[in-house]
Amino acid sequence: MTAPVQYPAAGLVPFSATGPASPTGGKRAGSAGPGSSSGARRFLASLFACLRNPWPDRRAERTLGGVSLLVSASVIAMIVFVGIRAWPIFAHNGISWLGPGGNLETEIGNMQATSVNPPAAAFHLRAWPLVYGTLLTSAIAVVLGLAIAVLSSIFIVELAPARLRKVVIPVIRLLASVPSVIYGLIGVLVLVPFVGNHLVTASEKASEQNVVELTGAGLGVAAVILTVMITPIMIALICEALIAAPTSWREGAVALGLNPLRAVLAVTLRGVRPAIVAAAVLATARALGEAVMIQMVSGGRSFEPNPAAGVVFFYEPLRTLASAIVDYHEGVGAPALKATLYAFAALLLFAACVLSIGGYLVKLPLRKYQTRG
Amino acid sequence: MSTFAPHQQKGRQPTSQRGRQSSPWSWRWGDRLVLFCAWTAGLGLCLVSAGIVIYMGYRGIEYLRPGLLFSRPAISTSQSQSGGFLDPLIGTVLLTLIGILLAGPLAVISAIWIAEYGRPSWLARVVESSIEIVAGTPDIVLALFGLSIFQLGLFAPLSFRSEAGGVFGRSFIAAGAMMSLIALPPLFAATREGLQAVPAHLREAAFALGKTRITTIRRVLLPSVRSNIATGVTLGVSRIIGDTAIVLLLLGETLHIEAQGSVPGLNVLRGTGSSLTSYVYDNSPAGEGAAPQKAYAAAFVLLLMVLALNLLVDRIGRSHQRSMGLSVPGGAI
Amino acid sequence: MSRDEMLLDPWNVTAVEQQDDPRADQSQTPPVEAPRALSIGGSQAPSAQSSEAPATQAPEVPPVRTIVLDRPPEPVAPPLRERNPLREPMRSTAGLERLRLDGVGIEYAGKPAVKSVSLSIHQGEVLALIGPSGCGKTTLLRTLNRLTELTPSAARAGEVLLDGEDIHELPDTTLRSRVAMVFQQPNPFPMSIFDNVAFALREQSRKRPRRRELEPLVIDALRRAGLYDEVRDDLDRPALRLSGGQQQRLCIARAIAPRPEVLLMDEPCSALDPISTGVIEQLIGELRRDLAVVIVTHNLAQAHRVADKVAFLYLGDLVEYGTTAEVFDEPRAQRTRDYVRGAFG
């Protein structure tokens, strides 16, 4: 008869028990060699043993959790830092900081001109032109982009021949990851001259020349390129959701006598509403925060395009919050300007937070129609 | 009396002729409108995408010469003398390395903690929300944040002090640290998705053998999400490569890589330089230069890098699906 | 055989083995030994063939039975009805002919799934398509509302006439509004219960019907599907919150709301628990007054309970077609006999 197997003592082995090669065991083993009694070597040996041998679960959990907390701590630090740096502007202007009135360019000029201890008047700011520009470009881009994205996704998934589909989907994914500076390059080297030389008539330029110069760089080009930039992201997300939707819905709808397009519109599109919301939120966040591309094509003047001006509305230059940061970042040494730029950044951060909360809230009532059991 | 297979005749040869489909002319007008708009949008999309790709390719091939990749940029008004973009290229690579080296362990560890432990739950939600906030933050805000951090006296060793005594705050380390924040969300999301997709019986088998949780993670789970991590890293790299705002604000925008200090290796990290994206920006009419040819060439190189990364992500995804025994969904992709 | 022998050896393997092997030449091959394992406790093996094998020999492997077609009918087991004395199969009078299949054949990518089937389906009766897996039942069912056209590699032959019209001449949307289908897995749409049932009604009308107009139709459909009492308090609940049986009944309500002429059911109860199955079977009995019902089922007992006519498909061929009593109690084809007795499947 074979010898009985040696089991560890005391019955059940607790979940977080160390294995046979416990750190302490390793330490002892490491230091048990003859003549290896120097403190440094023992320390190193125990360190390596500690790292190599299996950790107890509690220590592992604490370590991993600590590292994760580090990440979130840095994010919270970011929010706090930006808020602290932006505080002087809020303190001086209050909520009317967002309001209209005043010429933004002279205000910023005043800020740049001051030295280390600026007078209180240097903090005066009315940033409405920037807010207006941001809202205008983002709204146009998101609304247009969402419509195009939904229709194109339906086309790609339903109507396109299979060979076209195989080509288009990778191209869309590629376009979604193209750097924004390349879009800006195409805009400033192709679209702006085209608009400036061929679309804007001389009479339109003359009508505006007292106020602003129409060079072609302005709202139109910025909105178009922003749309082209955010639409592939939305298309990729919506296509993925449409493809992943259960085919039983479509089959059931077709079996009830609907043509295939109607089946997708009436059933599958309803089912992928959360994905559409997620895509819209993502695209809006991207559109709000786009800095470099807008700065390249929007004309660089803090002007408020006037919708009553007709077609010229689309040729007028503007500036957004993000592009203003890029424009003025070199002067960040001046305290008033620094506070201003951080104020813009704080507003953008706040908008991003509001967007993600808003997206979550919009998806909440849709959730009950989704998962199958 | 049961009829034993009545009326059976010799079958005719089947043909694949479809019956009459309902034609769009009989649909409601709303559906016809959607059909028309969908076709228009789809074809327009194809044209625009093809246009962008073909145009950038055409310009790139027109202006890109291999010598540009290997020669350093020089200041000169004439195109033929102003050199190539070796320094920006090295800058991009360096930034990517720093960013991934910083973001990789952080993202993977956070994902493991969230997916496997995640106690207490309010803490897990805080971590998840904060990473979501980073994902939604514009890169310009991250760049400003980096500026505010690295201009503190505490971080002077990471860049250098200017003559007036202020911390310059702009260096490869500064930009790389912020790039890691850019790359963190995709890597975190990919790893967490991969961990959540690992079937429960894999973990249970390991526990049944007496392994601790951390050992299971190390030996069983991490190897099985290798491809997800690879996908996340590739996505993070492509985001780092494409980012301009952080480079503009945090890298000092010098034409060559200027090292600071005396420690070899560390002096480059503390130094300033440029990246491909800032090179494109600077050479376009929006920056100082009027060198659109160089800008097109550098943009083309950027596009090729992004294309290569996309193909890599596709490849990883496909080989992962094959190894998991799934087939690529037919027809659509 | 005496009753005791029948109970102990209900298949009477020993007797049948030795009787019906027309291909074996018994003078040349060694005699087939009666498998001892199957004849328990003293059944009389017919004398001539059993050899006295010594007890120390290794047990013999029973020989493979050959299944022969077209034997004259011979009841070899107690009829099915006797085994289920509590349930009487439902009876009805057949109405006018709704669907006629004429030489229907279907191929997928060159491989035939259904070979030349001709059938007739009448209002007021339930036709059950039975047969082992992969024998073309579901394919045949899906042909009836042209769902096989969704598969690109499908090819068809033959004709299907709905009330005399060729279904391939009708627009497919019109056909499917007259021939409704219920699937194996319940697939309610991601909407409320009301919207689910009203779905086809809304889609089929030219103008947008208002909720007031739809409500009585929806309630009627839910009543006929036996779901109304359970959901009457809140018709706007999401449909995906219902249990499996309720979801399947919702799908039935959705299918019958636009008053189709034929209802096709593809194993509707296979994913459900016995109570829901019972409810749905009762439902089918009530529904067949207004519609023709074709049901595909794996469950022979269910076919026996529910169906008026039974069609047995084997490997794409229609082997037998007749009333339930005929096919289950006096099947003509040996293959049918084997299947309904459970010899294979």
Short description:
The complex is a heterotrimer of chains A (373), B (333) and C (345). Chain B has helices spanning 29-63, 66-70, 86-117, 121-136, 139-150, 172-197, 200-208, 213-224, 226-242, 245-250, 266-270, 276-283, 292-323. Chain B has 333 residues and is an all-alpha fold.
Q: What is the fold's blueprint, element by element?
A:
The complex is a heterotrimer of chains A (373), B (333) and C (345).
Chain A: H1 23-31, H2 39-52, H3 57-93, H4 104-113, H5 128-159, H6 162-176, H7 180-199, H8 202-208, H9 219-244, H10 247-255, H11 260-271, H12 273-289, H13 292-297, H14 321-328, H15 335-363
Helix pairs in contact in A: 1-2, 3-15, 5-9, 5-12, 6-9, 7-9, 9-12, 10-11, 12-15, 14-15
Chain B: H1 29-63, H2 66-70, H3 86-117, H4 121-136, H5 139-150, H6 172-197, H7 200-208, H8 213-224, H9 226-242, H10 245-250, H11 266-270, H12 276-283, H13 292-323
Helix pairs in contact in B: 1-13, 3-6, 3-9, 3-12, 4-6, 5-6, 6-9, 7-8, 9-13, 12-13
Chain C: H1 3-8, H2 13-19, H3 80-83, E1 97-108, E2 111-122, E3 126-130, H4 137-144, E4 154-162, E5 165-166, H5 172-178, E6 179-182, H6 193-204, H7 211-224, H8 228-231, H9 244-256, E7 262-266, H10 274-287, E8 292-296, H11 300-306, E9 309-314, E10 317-323, H12 324-329, H13 334-341
Parallel strand pairs in C: 3-8, 3-9, 6-7, 7-8
Antiparallel strand pairs in C: 1-2, 1-4, 4-5, 9-10
Helix pairs in contact in C: 6-7, 6-9, 7-9
Q: Characteristics of this structure?
A:
heterotrimer, A: 373 residues, mainly alpha, MetI-like fold, B: 333 residues, 13 helices, globular, disordered C terminus
Task: Describe it.
The complex is a heterotrimer of chains A (373), B (333) and C (345). Chain A is mainly alpha-helical. Chain A has a domain at 128-369: MetI-like (MetI-like fold), CATH 1.10.3720. Chain A has helices spanning 23-31, 39-52, 57-93, 104-113, 128-159, 162-176, 180-199, 202-208, 219-244, 247-255, 260-271, 273-289, 292-297, 321-328, 335-363. Chain A is flat. Chain A starts with 22 loop residues before the first helix and ends in a 10-residue tail after the last helix. Chain B is mainly α. Chain B contains 13 helices and no strands. The longest helix of chain B is centred in the N-terminal third of the chain and has 35 residues, at 29-63. Chain C contains 13 helices and ten strands. Chain C has helices spanning 3-8, 13-19, 80-83, 137-144, 172-178, 193-204, 211-224, 228-231, 244-256, 274-287, 300-306, 324-329, 334-341, and strands at residues 97-108, 111-122, 126-130, 154-162, 165-166, 179-182, 262-266, 292-296, 309-314, 317-323. Chain C is globular, with a radius of gyration of 25 Å. Chain C starts with a helix and ends with a helix. Residues 23-55 and 78-88 of chain C have low confidence and may be disordered. The chains are: A mainly alpha (373), B mainly alpha (333), C alpha/beta (345). At the A-B interface, helix 3, helix 5, helix 6, helix 7 and helix 9 of A face helix 1, helix 3, helix 4, helix 5 and helix 8 of B.
